Amino acid sequence: MIGSTCRTLLRFLAIACFIGSAFAAPAAQADAAKAALDRLLAEHWEWQMREAPEWATMVGDHRYDDRLADRSPAALERQLAETRAFLKRLEAEVQPARLNDDDRVTYDVFVHHLRTGAEELSFPATATMVLSNKAGLHLDFPQLVQMMPFRTERDYRNYLARLRALPGAVDRNLEAMRLGLRIGWVTFRASLEKVPRQIDTLLVKDVTSSPLYQPLRQLPPELPAPVREALAAEARQTLEQTVAPALRRLREFVVNEYLPHSPVDGSIKRYPGGEAYYAFRVRQQTTTDLTPAQIHATGQAEVQRLRAEMEALMRSTGHRGDFASFVKWLNSDPRFMLRDANELLMRYRDIAKRVDAELPRQFAQLPRLPYGIRAIPAHEGPETPEYYTPGAADGSRAGWFNANGLALKRRPTWEMEALFLHEAVPGHHLQTARALELDKLPMLRRSGFYVAYGEGWALYAETLGGALGVYTDPYARFGQLRMEIYRAARLVVDTGIHVFGWSRQQAIDWMSERTGMRREEVAAEVDRYFVWPAQALGYKIGQLHIAGLRDRMRAALGSCFDIRRFHMAVLDQGALPLAVLDQWMARWLAQERELTKASCPTGSGTVSTAER
Fold first, then answer.
1. Model-level pTM?
2. Which residue from 122, 144, 123, 141 is spatially nearest to 131, judged by alpha carbons?
3. Residue-wise pLDDT tens digits, 37-51
4. If residue 387 lies in a helix (H) or strand (E), which one and from where to where?
5. Domain boundaries, given as residue ranges, for the chain
6. Contact status, residue 347 vs residue 338, Cβ threshold 8 Å
7. How many other CB atoms are found less than 10 A from the CB of residue 8?
8. Do residues 396 and 60 make contact, with C-beta atoms less than 8 angstroms apart?
9. Core vs surface per residue 306-320: b (16+ CB within 10 A) or e
10. Contact status, residue 475 vs residue 465, Cβ threshold 8 Å
11. Which of 254, 327, 476, 572 suits a disulfide with 471, CB 3.0-4.6 Å?
12. Could you read off the pLDDT of 3-23 as tens digits, one per residue?
């Protein structure tokens, strides 16, 4: 899972397009159409950096590190008009028939994103649903701090400017939520009830113990002592006199004005215009035209298949009890429990060494950008799941797998391998780092993200554990299946809640009975689906799509199918909507057939158990 700040910023991605030319066009085809396309792409990127300075920080563009985005309702109205203007110009100034195949794909994806972005901005939820226990200023700002550079006095001055900008961001949030109160778009209660406690982690008596003071505890010794002292003093004053009052104001609003009007039933169909919004979210998050009914049925079938595999694996261990007793044993036996956070980190680092050594068997090229493994900050709490923080395009910041070393009884060792494969390599880090290094693509394309592609790839990466040799016992393999089955269950539960009238309790009961997850874990999962409708659909839909492409390519190429080349083909165009990925893979298949037609028969490929 991508971290909270990343998710909030990626929401802005749906407003803007991050797709550039796939390859430099031959000189003969570098005509006015391509020039116009490139010009609009470059202009759009610069617009986005100005509009989303947090996103600029994330990708390594530090020109706007002293600013926070304006996400007020008025600003979103302006962004809607500007997005529509970009789309109008694109359709008027670029003649797609004159583009080569690669640029035509870029054009089609650009149109897709501008249309999707404009559609998202037209829904009231975009302007009003700005705060929950999963995302919001109180969570995003501390994670943003982790992505800022802190090497020079200017870096620290930028941070102080962002701290001073925080009250304005709070006020814009309050404006958005008050609009939501007026028009009936208020965050689901079970999620909102957790927000005051989250804000409290930033409201500490001694500001030097605040997570927001962390950069000032590590001032570079190269800075003159008077400068270090002045920066630290200014930070303390700003946190005490500017930031803390703003956060208290936000907390008081949530408790006194917002929570009393929050709905107990958070199904989107209960909101004004909610059915249309959910239909849009399904299209946006899956990048397909699948209907909720089709997705629901797919989830039912996948849950049934995976549960059968889990029970067969359970029997292979010699366990004599039922499924529930097996899961209870896995969650309590001392052999699967860790002593402390240091042991957790050491174990993850051992997994990393084993996986890194095996990656060349599955990938023809590996990214240069390194990744690290670290504990999440304590203020994020025991309920925060592990997540990935992307590196910077200029290589100045590594990618990070953030592991939660709190409440270790909730984190048995048998699920660690699959979790690592998802968040680090060959999952999020390998995919995003590889995209950042595709220097023939513009930054828009290199830093793009789609849930169905990015999370679908990360879930697919979990299934590579057999081929990578990390599922060395049936318990680790069971952990992989358990992680996959709850992604499949999401297809059923998310659509059940928002389309088919399921209650929260019904969703919790159904998911608990089938997945082997603890009820408290399931409750947190279900509440997530209320807060981010349809977002959870992208994982399993994307994974099934990528696995299906692999199987079709193998069947078509027979003995000439090379899994290493297939994986690079999926990765080396950057993130794509699934329909565009299909177009690209059809072209790749034709190229592979041409390259191998003299030496390989086709149609005789099979899929090994290790690759499933």
1. 0.93
2. 141
3. 999 999 999 999 999
4. strand 387-389
5. 4-187+189-262, 280-539
6. yes
7. 23
8. yes
9. bbeebeebbeeeebe
10. no
11. 476
12. 655 555 555 444 443 333 333
